[in-house]
């Protein structure tokens, strides 16, 4: 099952890599029964004001601004998990400076190609992008001062392995800052079971308390939520999973989808 989900995510994001941000705002996201519009930028924050921002690297796929809260310093080695076209990596590069190093990790070939092309155009010598799986990173122990990730870990089937790997790869005293999607309450089972919505970052999300529990169980300390915002899925998407009565009930109960930016130390 985990490999199937990874294949779905890889396929979806290889396709997204061939589109720009504007096209992703009107992507047709096919499900098992229908084809409907899924705006992959629906959760994203605006990066354009940040130093290091590159329009070509911004596909609108994030759900926060983790670099804003990551306490990245000049000379740091930063790893960006699920680096995509390079958006967060290039912002991180502006913070580490010439003396630092940024490594982007992704398993979607088309994304890696796009990120490497963007790096070449920008002329950066201390940014690299490598292929790899977050559940089994191709890095040695104690490599990074900081790990960042933006709306990616919710797509990883085994989050325990992912955070365990993050702990292994961070230097003692290092830290991570990730923006991710979590849940409060129960989503409709049809939505949870839809693999397409998994690739859309929703059904792959877990309960907020469980998410924070995984981080704690992985050995991290001083865990804090630096930012939180509710994500409102449009009615026309939810109507593919429920009728009008159930939609009204869903809107009226305590169930919610949230973007959280979490910081924790090794």
Could you describe the 3D structure shown?
- There is one protein chain.
- The chain has one domain: Vaccinia Virus protein VP39 (Rossmann fold).
- About 5% of the residues have low confidence.
- The chain contains 10 helices and 10 strands.
- It is about 35% helix and about 25% strand.
- The strands form 2 sheets. Strands 3, 4, 5, 6, 7, 8, 9 and 10 form an 8-stranded mixed beta sheet that branches.
- Helix 1 crosses helix 4 and helix 5 crosses helix 8.
- With about 270 residues, it is an alpha/beta fold.
- Helix 5 links the parallel strand 6 and strand 7.
How is the topology of this model organized?
Elements: H1 2-17, H2 21-24, E1 28-30, E2 35-37, E3 77-81, H3 87-96, E4 101-106, H4 109-122, E5 127-131, E6 144-150, H5 159-169, E7 170-184, H6 189-193, H7 195-199, E8 206-207, H8 208-217, E9 221-231, H9 235-238, H10 244-252, E10 256-265
Parallel strand pairs: 3-4, 3-6, 4-5, 6-7, 7-8
Antiparallel strand pairs: 1-2, 7-10, 9-10
Helix pairs in contact: 1-4, 5-8
| Derived structural class | alpha/beta
CATH topology: Rossmann fold
- The H-level CATH homologous superfamily, spelled out, is Vaccinia Virus protein VP39
Q: Report the span from N to C terminus.
A: 31 Å
Supply the number of helical segments: 10
The CATH first-level class comes to Alpha Beta
Helix content: 25-40%
Give the strand content. Answer: 25-35%
Shape: globular
> How many separate domains make up the residues?
1
Q: Mean pLDDT, nearest integer? A: 83
Largest sheet: 8 strands, mixed
Which CATH-level-2 architecture?
A: 3-Layer(aba) Sandwich
Query: How would you spell out the order of helices and strands?
Result: HHEEEHEHEEHEHHEHEHHE
**Secondary structure tally: strands:** 10
Low-confidence segments, given as residue ranges, are 22-40
């Amino acid at each position: 099952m985990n490999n199937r989900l990874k294949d779905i995510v890889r396929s979806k994001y290889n396709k997204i890599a061939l589109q720009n941000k504007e096209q992703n705002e009107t992507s047709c996201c096919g499900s098992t029964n229908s084809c409907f519009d899924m705006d992959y930028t629906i959760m994203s924050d605006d990066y354009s004001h940040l130093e290091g921002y590159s329009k070509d690297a911004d596909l609108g796929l994030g759900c926060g601004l983790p670099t804003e809260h990551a306490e990245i310093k000049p000379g740091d080695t930063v790893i960006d998990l699920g680096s995509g076209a390079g958006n967060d990596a290039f912002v991180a590069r502006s913070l580490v400076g010439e003396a630092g190093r940024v490594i982007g990790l992704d398993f979607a070939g088309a994304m890696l190609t796009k990120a490497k092309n963007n790096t070449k155009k920008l002329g950066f010598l201390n940014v690299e992008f490598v292929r790899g799986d977050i559940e089994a990173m191709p890095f040695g122990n104690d490599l990074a001062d900081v790990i960042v990730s933006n709306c990616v870990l919710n797509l990883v089937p085994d989050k325990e392995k992912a955070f365990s790997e993050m702990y292994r790869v961070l230097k003692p005293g290092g830290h991570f800052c990730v923006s991710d999607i979590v849940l409060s309450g129960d989503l409709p089972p049809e939505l949870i079971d839809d693999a397409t919505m998994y690739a859309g970052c929703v059904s792959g999300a877990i309960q907020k308390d469980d998410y924070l529990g995984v981080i704690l169980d992985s050995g991290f300390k001083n865990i804090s939520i630096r930012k939180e915002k509710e994500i409102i899925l449009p009615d026309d998407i939810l109507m593919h999973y429920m009728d009008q009565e159930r939609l009204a009930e869903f809107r009226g109960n305590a169930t919610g989808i949230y973007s959280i930016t979490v910081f924790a130390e090794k």
